[in-house]
Write a structure and sequence with these properties.
alpha/beta; 4 strands
Length: 105
């Protein structure tokens, strides 16, 4: 299944975001949220958005550099885009490095 991106400007109201998600045909959407997007800084709005996403039977990932929105989105049950990938990359241990061989003069 192909993921589709939906970029916000940061000035949208919650209803506009929900309408945009309804109109998107993709079942998996990466919602790109700019820092300080006001309508997503409230836990209630994120809970409403999550309920609507679930009702639409779509999978929406949030992608943002705004830590407050990230925390609130996690609490509301959203998946954070690339979070699992970044966690996997950070715990990889490199085991195939060989020490340099001594060079004989």
């Amino acid at each position: 299944m192909e993921k589709d991106y939906l970029y916000l400007k940061g000035t949208e109201e919650l209803g506009e975001i929900i309408d945009a998600l309804r109109e998107h045909q993709a079942k998996e959407i990466i919602l790109v949220v700019p820092r300080g997007t006001k309508c997503l800084l409230y836990p209630t709005n994120l809970e409403i958005l999550k309920a609507e996403v679930d009702r639409l039977k779509k999978r929406v990932y949030l992608s943002t550099y705004d830590e407050r929105i990230n925390q609130l989105a996690k609490q509301a049950g959203f998946d954070i885009f690339l979070e699992d990938y970044e966690a996997e990359e950070s715990i990889k241990i490199v085991t195939d490095i060989l020490p340099p061989k001594a060079i004989k003069p």
